Amino acid sequence: MSQSHSAFEEKAAPRGGAIREFASYYKPHMRLFLLDMACALLIALVDILFPVVTRKVLYEYIPGQMMRTFMWVMLGMLALFIVRMAAQWFVAYLGHMMGVRIEADMRAAIFAHLQKLGFSFYDKNRTGLLMSRVTTDLFEVTELAHHGPEDLFISFVTLAGAFIVLWRIKWQLALVLMISVPLIVVFVALRRRNMMRASRAVKQRTAGINAEIESSISGIRVSKAFGNEEKEIEKFARCTDAYVDAKRGYYKVMAGFFSGTDFMMNLMSLSVICAGSYLIMKNQMDIATLVTFNMYVASVQSPIRKLTQFTEQFTQGMAGFQRFRAIMHEEPDIVDSPNARPLEHVEGEIEFRDVTFTYDEKKKAVLEHINLHVRPGEMLALVGPSGGGKTTLCQLIPRFYETTSGSITLDGQDIRDIRLSDLRGSIGIVQQDVFLFAGTILENIRYGRPDASMDEVIEAAKQAEIHEDILRMPDGYDTIVGERGIMLSGGQKQRVSIARIFLKNPRVLILDEATSALDTATERRIQAAFDRLAKGRTTLVIAHRLSTIKNADEIIVIGEQGILERGTHAQLVKRGGVYAALAEGASLG
Questions:
Q1: Which of 109, 364, 379, 412: CA 20 to 30 A from 530?
Q2: What digits encode the pLDDT tens for the residues 72-120?
Q3: Pairing of β 508-512 and β 538-542
């Protein structure tokens, strides 16, 4: 995996339908959108009317000394300009608000979709890259959502109105403009693809920077412990250099685009002057008509400039939207089946029936032909060397991964036919690497059951033997735990996670090396909480220490060849096999 790319990063967004999909996000905000377009139409009409009034003044009011009419027309134009100002305010404010709301809708949609994606997706993609999809990639979408339709609408209305008026004034000069504008449009269309490609490269590099920042800040304590701050700075500098190179490429393309567009518009003005001067010299047109025409050339150039600005907005916005689409079209690998049924009452009987699992079809299976039966309320211990598949086996039960073949049942029902929310709601997991959210202790315990009362939270904390510790903290249950719970000790973090499970009150419990990183005294205290937690529940324990599993109802030893041994502690020690050797060395894998 490179610094700025992940396995997912290289996946292209699905082809076709991008504009239609983008437009669908306007639907909830249609009233705001139509008001914005109405204001934009008013702005365009006033801009078209001004040169018409100017020509009238030059041809009729000034030569005819029509002072009264002239004053009324000027007052009328002043009123229209005030109305235009109000319309411009609405466009600037309401239009931007519409863009922000569309961006918020997209951000909510992609965040909700990320919640549906399975563990395998997150195994392959860096957090910083995904953060970039949810944040930076959608910033330009706001500008595109607001200015895109508005600029296109104003530009086409202004151009159409201007050409109609100009054709009536002098069709020969209008023809010059009508030839020039399509040439500019073709130039814009040809350049847009290059700008899109360059913009996509910039976004990939930006995502790479976000990934490096996220990784470096998360691991800041490790880098300081090894004295590798300079290495981190150098690594980030390399990533930033790649970003600068991508920006350089984008700005080169953009510079060629805007300078070329400006040159063609100047040629358009020059062509009108040349053609108009020729007609004046031939006595086929007067100077006042040429002046009016030049005013309209300016009004034609303004929408063309808007169109070129729109091209840059469209390029950047759609590059971000395409990356947004790529995730939105990523199908969750684990979903409720059409026949999924609710789980009414859980006893906790678990059975593995000839289960095989591999993370990658091209690689060797992690688990092969596993057959297990765990009775309700029974404790099953899993031991064996690291990498043998113990954790993987436990992760298959809540369907964090899908079995490659075979089936797993809960109370005789295939877990694939149980609603995911019910299945995972009936399982509690405590891991060695406890994750606490950067909020309060109360919020972290209540995560087990968000609607729990304060009394229920306190009772869960008491069961986990963390209540007294919390009361000694400055803010009690409102104490901030810090990023990933850094303000708490390892034992305190573990007991908060246990309280969370007590509050959840699941029928099936999975303890994944939950005490292996703790000292002996802390482990004894937490083990007592685990004993209370496991009482009456079906429990699967992965452990390195003999003391945590010797009272298990059944112990299985898992190795590369699958289940090597099974039985109680006494039976396995007496057998003198793999488990006996592990127990003698006091390290169970």
A1: 412
A2: 988 988 999 999 999 888 888 888 788 888 888 888 888 888 888 887 8
A3: parallel
